[in-house]
C-alpha cells in the first residue's frame, strides 16, 4: 500500500496525464519510503492508476460505479487485451502503437527501464560499493516544468504549495532502487562511502535542446560564442543555477508545461568501475651494475632491457589486475650501483585494481614470484599499506642516514698510513652544487650535506676501500672526485691527490619503514644474495665482479 494521502490525488492525476512515470509521481508526492520505489514497476503503475481513479467517499455508489466503468484499464490489463484472441485484438494493438510514447517526460526512462536485475549485474571483486549517477542536464529543465504543473494543480485544489526542494531527486530515487538490486545480486552492501565506486552515466540526445534554450532565451549566465561549445557549457549545475534566476512566466513562454513526450528512451552512456588505489610497499636489493632503477630512455631510445621498477611492478600489475601504477622509493641508486644489506624502501601505487584483497600468505607468494623472476633483484617485507603510511617513507628523508662502500683509485701511489687519518674525520660538512650529470633533471642549487663517518681499508698502492655513513641525499661520487670543484671539500682535497670512484655499493638505507615481515621457516638462513652467490658455492668470475669491491678480492 502506497503512503499517499487525499491531497496527493490531483497531483497523481495531473502527472499521469502529463506522461510521468510511476516513480517520478512518487517523487513529486514527496514519498520517501524507499521500498515503494523498489516495487515492480507494472504493479506500482496499476496501484497509482487505481488511486487516481478512486473518487472521494462523498460520491455516491452509483456515480462511483459509473465512473469506474469509464476508467481505462491499467497497463497489465491492456497487455492482456493486446494479447487476446478476439477479432478486435489486432485493431487494439494497432491503436496502441499509434498512441503517444510511454517514456517518462521527466526522467526520460531512467527510473523505468534501468532498475532491473539484469542491469545490476556487473562483476567486479569488492566487499562494498558506492554508487554515483550522472544524469543529463535537461532532466533539471523537465523536472522544473513538471514542478510548475504540480504547483498549478495544488493552487487549483487550494492545498499547501509544494516546494521544489521537497521533491525527491531522480538520482536519489534511482540509488534507492539500484542499491537494493546490487546488494541482492552481488551479495555486498551499497554504502555512502566505499573503496569501490560504480559510476553510471546517462544521455538523451533527443532532448539536448531543452537546456540549450537557455543560451539565447533565458540570458544563460555564460558567454557562448560557438555552438560547438554548448555541450561543455550546459552542465547540470549550470542549468540548475540558470533555473534559479528564471521567472515562472518566462519559463512557460519558452518551454512547454508539462514537458513534451519523448520518443526515445534515455540511453546508458557508460558504466565505470573504479577502485581506490592499493599501495604495496617493501624493500628491494639490486645485485646488478647494469640495471637502472627506472626505465632508462635517452632521446627516445631505450638503453637497458629492464629496470628495478619493471621487475617489481610486472607481477604486481598482473596479480592485482591494475590499470596502471606509480613507483616511488627512498632515494635512488645509479645504474652501476648495487643496493645490498636490508635493501631500499619502495612503494607502488596500483591504480584501479580489479582485485584488491590478498591474504598475508598470498602477498608472500607474490614476493616469491618477483624474486624468482630475476637474479638481479630481491624483494623483502612485501606488504599492503595505506596511503598515509607511504608518507612515512618521505618524511624527514634528508635527516636520515645511508651507508656506502666505495672502491677508490688514487693517482698518487699511497701507503696504508696515508689513509688512516680518514678514520678520524667525524661529521664533515660539505657543500654540493647540483652535479653536472643530473643538472638536466634537477634545479641548480648548493646543498649542504654531512659525512658522518669514514673508514678506510688499504688494498694496494693505488686502491683502497672507503666505507661512509652520510646524510641522505649526499652525492658520493661527486664527493670522491670533486665534480670539477662543484663539491667542497672533497676526497681529492683531503688526500692531496686526484681520486676517483671505481665501484659503489649502498649498504644500508636507515629508514625504519616498512615494518619488517618475519621470513617463513623455509626461508630463514638464506642470504640476501641470489642462490648463485651463496658463500658455500665456489665463486665464478662473474660472482667476483658482483661482490663488494670484488675485482680486488
Automatic annotation (TrEMBL):
EC annotation from Swiss-Prot or TrEMBL: 5.4.99.25
Gene3D superfamilies for the chain: 1.10.10.2050, 3.30.70.2510, 3.30.70.3190
Stretches assigned to the Pus10-like C-terminal domain: 279-510
Biased segments, Basic and acidic residues type: 521-537
Record bears the keyword Zinc: yes
Name of a matching Pfam family: Pus10_C
Reactions catalysed, as given in the entry: uridine(55) in tRNA = pseudouridine(55) in tRNA; uridine(54) in tRNA = pseudouridine(54) in tRNA
Biological process terms in GO annotation: tRNA pseudouridine synthesis
Domain Pus10 N-terminal eukaryotes, residue spans: 104-273
Name of the top EC class for this enzyme: isomerase
Predominant place of localization: cytoplasm
GO cellular component labels: mitochondrion; nucleus
Subcellular location per the Swiss-Prot or TrEMBL entry: Cytoplasm; Mitochondrion; Nucleus
GO MF term list: metal ion binding; RNA binding; tRNA pseudouridine(55) synthase activity
Keywords annotated in UniProt: Coiled coil, Cytoplasm, Isomerase, Metal-binding, Mitochondrion, Nucleus, tRNA processing, Zinc
Region (Disordered): 512-553
PANTHER family reported for this sequence: TRNA PSEUDOURIDINE SYNTHASE PUS10
Protein family membership: Belongs to the pseudouridine synthase Pus10 family.
The name this protein goes by in its record: tRNA pseudouridine synthase Pus10
Organism listed in the record: Scleropages formosus (Asian bonytongue)
Gene: PUS10
Amino acid at each position: 500500500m502506497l503512503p499517499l494521502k487525499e491531497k496527493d490525488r490531483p497531483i497523481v492525476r495531473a502527472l499521469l496525464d502529463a506522461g510521468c512515470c510511476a516513480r517520478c509521481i512518487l517523487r513529486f508526492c514527496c514519498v520517501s519510503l524507499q521500498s515503494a520505489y523498489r516495487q515492480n514497476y507494472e504493479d506500482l503503475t496499476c496501484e497509482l492508476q487505481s488511486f487516481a481513479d478512486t473518487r472521494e467517499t462523498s460520491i455516491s455508489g452509483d456515480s462511483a460505479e459509473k465512473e469506474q466503468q469509464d476508467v481505462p484499464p491499467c497497463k497489465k490489463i491492456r497487455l492482456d487485451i493486446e494479447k487476446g484472441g478476439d477479432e478486435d485484438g489486432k485493431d487494439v494493438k494497432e491503436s496502441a502503437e499509434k498512441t503517444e510514447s510511454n517514456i517518462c517526460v521527466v526522467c526520460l526512462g531512467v527510473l523505468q527501464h534501468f532498475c532491473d536485475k539484469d542491469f545490476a549485474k556487473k562483476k567486479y571483486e569488492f566487499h562494498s560499493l558506492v554508487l554515483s549517477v550522472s544524469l543529463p542536464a535537461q532532466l533539471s529543465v523537465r523536472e522544473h516544468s513538471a514542478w510548475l504543473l504540480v504547483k498549478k494543480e495544488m493552487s487549483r485544489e487550494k492545498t499547501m504549495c509544494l516546494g521544489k526542494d521537497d521533491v525527491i531527486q531522480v538520482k536519489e530515487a534511482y540509488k534507492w532502487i539500484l542499491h537494493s538490486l546490487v546488494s541482492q545480486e552481488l551479495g555486498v552492501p551499497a554504502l555512502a562511502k566505499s573503496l569501490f565506486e560504480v559510476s553510471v552515466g546517462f544521455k538523451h540526445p533527443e532532448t539536448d535542446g531543452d537546456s540549450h534554450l537557455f543560451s539565447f532565451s533565458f540570458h544563460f549566465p555564460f558567454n557562448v560564442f560557438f555552438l560547438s561549445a554548448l555541450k561543455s557549457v550546459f552542465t547540470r549545475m549550470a542549468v540548475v543555477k540558470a533555473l534559479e534566476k528564471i521567472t515562472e512566466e518566462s519559463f512557460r513562454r519558452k518551454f512547454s508545461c508539462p514537458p513534451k513526450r519523448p520518443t526515445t528512451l534515455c540511453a546508458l552512456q557508460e558504466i565505470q568501475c573504479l577502485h581506490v588505489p592499493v599501495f604495496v610497499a617493501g624493500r628491494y636489493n639490486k645485485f646488478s651494475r647494469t640495471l637502472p632503477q627506472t626505465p632508462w630512455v635517452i632521446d627516445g631510445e631505450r638503453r637497458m632491457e629492464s629496470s628495478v621498477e619493471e621487475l617489481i611492478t610486472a607481477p604486481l600489475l598482473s596479480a592485482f589486475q591494475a590499470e596502471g601504477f606509480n613507483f616511488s622509493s627512498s632515494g635512488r641508486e645509479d645504474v652501476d650501483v648495487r643496493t645490498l644489506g636490508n635493501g631500499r624502501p619502495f612503494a607502488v601505487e596500483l591504480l584501479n585494481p580489479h582485485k584488491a584483497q590478498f591474504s598475508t600468505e598470498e602477498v608472500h607468494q607474490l614476493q616469491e614470484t618477483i624474486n624468482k623472476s630475476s637474479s638481479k633483484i630481491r624483494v623483502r617485507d612485501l606488504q599492503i599499506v595505506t596511503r598515509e603510511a607511504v608518507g612515512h617513507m618521505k618524511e624527514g628523508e634528508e635527516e636520515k642516514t645511508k651507508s656506502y662502500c666505495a672502491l677508490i683509485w688514487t693517482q698518487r701511489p699511497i701507503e696504508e698510513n696515508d689513509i688512516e687519518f680518514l678514520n678520524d674525520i667525524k661529521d664533515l660538512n660539505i657543500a654540493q652544487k647540483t652535479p653536472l650529470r643530473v643538472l638536466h633533471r634537477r634545479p641548480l642549487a648548493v646543498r649542504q650535506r654531512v659525512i658522518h663517518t669514514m673508514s678506510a681499508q688499504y688494498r694496494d698502492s693505488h686502491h683502497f676501500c672507503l666505507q661512509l655513513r652520510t646524510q641522505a641525499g649526499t652525492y658520493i661520487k661527486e664527493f670522491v672526485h670533486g665534480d670539477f670543484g662543484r663539491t667542497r671539500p672533497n676526497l681529492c682535497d683531503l688526500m692531496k691527490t686526484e681520486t676517483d670512484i671505481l665501484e659503489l655499493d649502498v649498504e644500508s638505507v636507515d629508514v625504519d619503514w616498512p615494518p619488517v615481515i618475519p621470513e617463513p621457516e623455509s626461508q630463514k638462513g638464506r642470504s640476501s644474495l641470489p642462490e648463485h652467490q651463496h658463500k658455500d658455492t665456489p665463486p665464478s668470475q662473474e660472482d667476483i665482479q658482483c661482490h663488494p669491491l670484488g675485482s680486488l678480492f
